[in-house]
Amino acid sequence: MTGRRAVDAEVVDDGQHTDDAGPSYGAPAALWRTLERARPPLPVFTSPVRGPWLTSVLAAVLLVGLPVLLVTGLLSYAAYEPRLGGALPADPGVLRLPHFAWPTGPSWLYRVNQGLHVGLGLALVPVVLAKLWSVLPKLFAWPPARSLAQVLERLSLLLLVGSILFELVTGVLNIQYWYVFGFDFYTAHYYGAWVFLGAFALHVFLKLPTMVRSLRSRSLREELRTPLARTVAEPPDLHGLVSPTPGEPTISRRGVLALVGGASALLTLVTLGETVGIRATALLSPRGRSYGDGPNDFQVNRTARAAQVVAAGDDWRLVLRGGPREVSLSRAELLAMPQHTAELPIACVEGWSTVQTWTGVRLRDLAALAGVPEPSRGTVRSLEQAGAFAQAVLSGGQLGAGDALLALRVNGVDLSLDHGYPARTIVPAAPGVHNTKWVREIELLA
Amino acid sequence: MKRLYGAGPLHLLALLACFALAGAAAQRVGQDPLRLRYAVWFIGAALAHDLLLFPLYALLDRSLGSLVRRRRVPDLGSVNYVRVPALLSGLLLLVFAPVILQRSEGAYGAASGLDQDPYLGRWLAVSGVLFLASAVLYALRGRRA
User: Do A23 and B37 lie within an 8 Å CB cutoff?
Assistant: First the structure.
């Protein structure tokens, strides 16, 4: 009976754990007791390596990794400049982030942020699955609750598990362009992150003491030296994780950790190339395919065909609005202006990126020419008619950045049509889709 | 408080804060005509894991284990020479199913100008290498023993 009392104290541990466990049932006790007696047939868990120590090791990895995912994700939302209407959801109400202007340097800022977000997200998939495997007996624990506190706590676990899986699933589907869910990915991923934030913070608050205690219960060094032959189940625990009827072990605890770590490493190996530029190992990364060796042979995010843009002829003009008078420039006139060359990445929200050498006219030179030398913002419009990114609003900081260009050439040759011929913007550290292709007009606001 | 509710007041306050935040997100999503889809995918993700994916891999693992146990001299650890490559291969399929099974050719082609033809072959090749490496390790172990 002491064991059971301790279980109760554990499950509702509010950080002030005492040996005075209090009653076994909350009110109304008769209800919980009846529920306990009505036990249906439930699955039996026999793995001898399940236990609080193993669960806590996986939890510790997630305790570090998941907040990094959360922060890089929210930073990506900020990089889309919600204040300028560039982000989705456009108006998150009380869930909006404090405003700050997304910086334009270092130029790899967004590249690293997204590479980390997507790469780490994929690498944590096996850790999340292993963590869920390790605690699954609790899902089928009977009775499911002995008090209102436990009912609410289980509900919060649905939010936690639901939000983690929802974020992983939508993210994994999005990087592979399978929009089978139907709703807007950005919106769903953003609100899902808030649900996760609350449920995760709560879980850490409730379980951190348990995790620390469990980690201390065994020595990691000792576990890493324990082969299968010497593997025995953890002692019976208060959490219901250790099987009461453990089978013979077929894998050691270090084996489980190696398997999970190996799975993370494998996922990283077959995708990382899309971020760091070694595409040979990026066998399964959705954007890891090579386009060839030519100067325009790098990742395209939206083909001219999909955007329904045809090659602009000699009559193409860039129009600059917002100044005292409208300025119109041909491509030859743009090429006659001072040209600036910069090595800048295009970094996609999906995690892939590619660094190229761009040449063109500085956006701030164009702003000066338009008669708006210090614009507060500017809208760049494309020849593309439809599409979410047929236009993008750039901040004053982005328009003024020394390397922010209206690029005409890449790697020493004219842009190909798929890369935005006759002209495209390229802004350091901006999300890829905010570098508008097939530019026809820039409207500047003083 | 503890007698009625089953835990201290801090427990309740923390839970309410968590639900309030989730409620705020749900309220924003609730303005979307597709709100039901969000809910289905949110709860569906948890249910699909707990009641579909887990039973499936647990069942496969159990049948694999029974194969090993049926041998005259059971060598329980040997199951890992199949289990590990199978798990890794399955994980890759689970994560990259859309490109491997070419579920998103249209959107993928519009974005990249490429097709998804190579991915099935690549997944099979990676899986083949994993199983082969495992077989080599097993053979080497047999020789040492």
Answer: no
Rounded average pLDDT over A414-422: 97
Write down the pLDDT at residue A267. Answer: 96
Task: Give CA–CA dist A243/A432, Å, rounded.
Answer: 50
Q: What pLDDT, on the 0 to 100 scale, is given for residue A238? A: 82
- Average pLDDT taken over every residue of chain A: 92
B133 touching A, CB under 8 A?
Answer: no
Chain A contacts in chain B segment 4-43 (CB below 8 A): 4-8, 10-12, 14-15, 17-22, 24-29, 32, 34, 37-38, 41-43
Instruction: Quickly list DSSP for A231-296.
Output: --PPPP-SSS-S-SS----SS-HHHHHHHHHHHHHHHHHTTTHHHHS-TTS-SS-TT-----SSTT
Contact residues, A window 161-190, toward B, CB-based 8 Å cutoff: 161-163, 165-166, 168-170, 172-173, 176-184, 187-188
**SS3 at position A134:** helix
pLDDT of residue A239: 82
Give the nearest partner residue to B3 out of A22, A191, A266, using CB atoms.
A22
Residue pointed to by tokens 């000699």: A314
How confident is the model over A193-207, as a mean pLDDT?
98
Q: Which residues of A103-136 are buried (b: 16+ CB within 10 A; e: fewer)?
A: bbeebbbbbbbbbbbbbbbbbbbbbbbbbbbbbb
Strongest mean pLDDT among A318-327, A386-395, B69-78 = A318-327
